[in-house]
Amino acid sequence: MAFLTALIAGVLFGSGLLVSRMCDPQRVLAFLDVAGNWNPALAFTMGGAILVAAPAFLYVRKHRVDLLGEGCELPDRFKINGQLVAGSAIFGIGWGLSGICPGPGLLLLTGGSIQSFVFVGSVVMGSLALRLASGWTRH
User: Fold this and answer.
1) Which residues share a beta bridge with 65?
2) What is the reported pLDDT for 138?
3) Which of 55, 61, 42, 60 lies closest to 103 in space, CA to CA?
4) Phi/psi at 65 (nearest 5 deg)?
5) Which residues of 70-89 are buried (b: 16+ CB within 10 A; e: fewer)?
6) Contact 109, 126 (CB under 8 A)
7) Rounded distance, CA 95 to CA 32, Å?
């Protein structure tokens, strides 16, 4: 059941990216260009995503289980540490330079562009480097 739920969520997420055309790096970069030819489409896409996800987050926060009844713990919303700041900065710099974030990056792989392979490869290498540097393993 968990696999089916993840598959449905992934298809819904990918479909949303395609419908909103947020897998187009130029469209994303136009949103980030607030001093130039600004395109607010990404703000509406994010707003729609928040409206869809908020009820599930509220449910998990209240009941401490996901919709399948599995135990679930959300991160502390108020804890800001060096890892969070560094990770946010790295994500923001990468997103601003490329116009791609991980979700659309995976979707762009289906088109076979060199840019998408370089981007996703960089994300994978960065994740592996973090694991090696911090000694972190998934439990």
Assistant:
1) 71
2) 56
3) 42
4) -135, 155
5) eeeeeeeeeeeeeeeeeeee
6) no
7) 9
Pick from 17, 22, 18: nearest CA to 39: 22
64: left (phi over 0), alpha (psi -120 to 50) or beta: left
Query: How distant, in Å, are the alpha carbons of 37, 69, 120, 121 from that of 114?
Result: 27, 41, 10, 10
> Please, what is the Cα angle at 10 between 5 and 71, to 5 degrees?
40
Take residue 111 and report the two structure tokens written for it: 């088109």
Q: pLDDT in tens for each of the 139 residues of the chain? A: 888 988 998 888 888 888 888 888 888 889 888 899 899 988 998 898 899 889 988 999 999 998 788 898 888 889 998 888 888 898 888 888 888 888 888 888 888 888 889 989 988 998 888 888 877 655 4
Helices (H), 1-139: 2-20, 25-32, 41-63, 82-98, 102-109, 114-134
For the record, the structure tokens of 19 come out as 């419908």
Q: Is the pTM of this model over 0.70?
A: no
